[in-house]
Amino acid sequence: MQGRDSVWRNHVLQTDDVDTQWGKMMKRLGVDVIYALSPQAKGKIERPYSWLQDRIVRTCALEKVDNVHDARRVLADERERYCHHQVHSTTGEIPAIRFDRALKQQNSLFRPFSVPAPDTSPDDVFCLQETRVTNGYGRISLFNHQTLVANVPLRSQVDVRLVPEFDRGVMHIRVWYRQALAHTVDLPLKDFRVHF
């Protein structure tokens, strides 16, 4: 298998070749990601969302909604109606009632959330994840910030977990080395070129 571009072929990453932030989070939770690789499997998800989008747009047009605040109300009302009042065309049941019954009968893959070991906070799971290597001075570089990571050998790979805290205007950074929290630091959020 060719991993780089050449004169004869441009290498294009396929769906499974890209390790997305969502995929990294699911991996931390111990959930395997299975992609819908057929039109039939994709349609099972896309059809209800397409229908819901059409219905929300039409409702907004009929009610002359022209701002995001009122559109959110329309979305909440539609979600409530769809989940708790409408009989589903395929199952013949109301989705919320069907889901509650599945939970009571333990016939569901949903489990209560718990922070997986060795993580110590939900912020270690629900975050942006990067990998860095400490340089010859024990520092890592993050968006033009040099951060000293003490007690980590030089030129070692570390896992960096980034959590934006918009109210404080900082990016909370937790650096992990060999399954242990090695360093935390807060940097100004305005310096990060990440779109949320």
Write a concise synopsis of the structure shown.
This protein is of the alpha+beta class and 196 residues long. The chain folds into two domains: 36-104; 122-191, no CATH class. It is 30% helix and 20% strand.
Characterization of the model:
30% of the residues lie in helices and 20% in strands. Helix 2 packs across helix 3. A hairpin with a 2-residue loop joins strand 5 and strand 6. The protein is elongated. The chain has 196 residues and is of the alpha+beta class. The strands form two sheets. Strands 1-4-5-6 form a four-stranded antiparallel sheet. Strands 2-3 form a two-stranded antiparallel sheet. It is built from four helices and six strands.
List its salient traits:
196 residues, alpha+beta, four-stranded antiparallel β-sheet, 4 helices, elongated
* Gyration radius, in Å: 23 Å
Number of strands: 6
Secondary structure class reads alpha+beta
Instruction: Report the principal-axis shape.
Output: elongated
Low-confidence parts lasting 5 or more residues at pLDDT below 50?
none
Describe the secondary-structure layout:
Layout: H1 21-28, H2 39-62, H3 68-84, H4 95-104, E1 128-133, E2 139-142, E3 145-148, E4 157-165, E5 170-177, E6 180-188
Antiparallel strand pairs: 1-4, 2-3, 4-5, 5-6
Helix pairs in contact: 2-3
